[in-house]
Specification:
- Helices cover 35% and strands 20% of the residues.
- It is of the alpha/beta class.
- The protein has a six-stranded mixed β-sheet with strand order 6-7-8-3-9-10. A four-stranded antiparallel β-sheet has the order 2-1-4-5, with helices on one face.
- The N terminus is likely disordered.
- It binds iron/sulfur cluster.
Length: 320
Amino acid sequence: MTALLEETGVDTALLAVRGLTVDAGDVRLVDGVDLSLRAGERVALVGESGSGKSVTARALLRLDRGLRLGGSVRLGGTDLLALSDKEMSAVRGRRVGMVFQDPMGALDPLQTIGEQVAEPLRLRGLRRREAHERARALLDDLGVDRAAERMRAYPHEFSGGMRQRVVLAMALIGEPEVLVADEPTTALDVRVQAQVLRLLDTVCAERGLGVLLITHDLGVVAGFAERVVVMYAGRAVEAQPIRPLYAAPAHPYTAGLLRAVPRVDRLGERLEPIPGAPPSPAARPGGCAFHPRCPVALDRCATEVPAWTGVAACHLLEES
Ligand code: SF4
């Protein structure tokens, strides 16, 4: 994968992940993932559920205690895996903001919206009045109507889309350099999903924020990301800029994902889900983990792990 990383400027990247491994006891959940994100860039990490994409995102922020992490995760000049827990919690929110799928789970039902959005600033020592004024201005920017009044409301008084705006405000109030957004629109209906994505697009562009978007939906990625890393069974299997990836996916798994999403350039074509299901990490097949589902598998695919060949890891590319 080194060629791709050099091509995409990983050595000058704001966030540079090399050989990330995540182990839960004896089970390897993430196996040697490389990623890079430059300032202001949007990268999507894509795969079905169980591919390891969310575990990867959470590992970058060291959110799950009890998992063993290996490799390196550098943010600017800082190796996040070498920080103490206290130093790492200062990185979260200040340098890296996070938005997750379930806004209700991220909000305290007993605290007002205003208290929750202003809290990171209060923890930094800002006076209540100033912190609340900045929270109000940000909610206003994010399209929350009557923000001053609604700061006094509680999460259950907000709709799903409005709650996701509040969670986005909580992620942005610390003015981070990077935003990690894990399935931020999955729990929303299609119309609200589009609104939230547009909003994310605008605020990230205005702030020059690097965004790592985690999603199972290649349709969501199309209008948002510049580059895509596709994961399967804990490994990165393809990484390309969005246009070539859509035009000519290099890995049969990416091609399968694309055949399963509606596309405006292929109206009338039948959608074909990939047959079968991803393996559990404890029962990952040998060789290429995708071989039981791959429509073009070769004999060697069941026994030999494919090497990275420029943009993807697949024996077909090695042979060509
Ligand atoms: Fe299919 Fe083989 Fe390529 Fe895996 S290595 S994606 S099984 S052709």
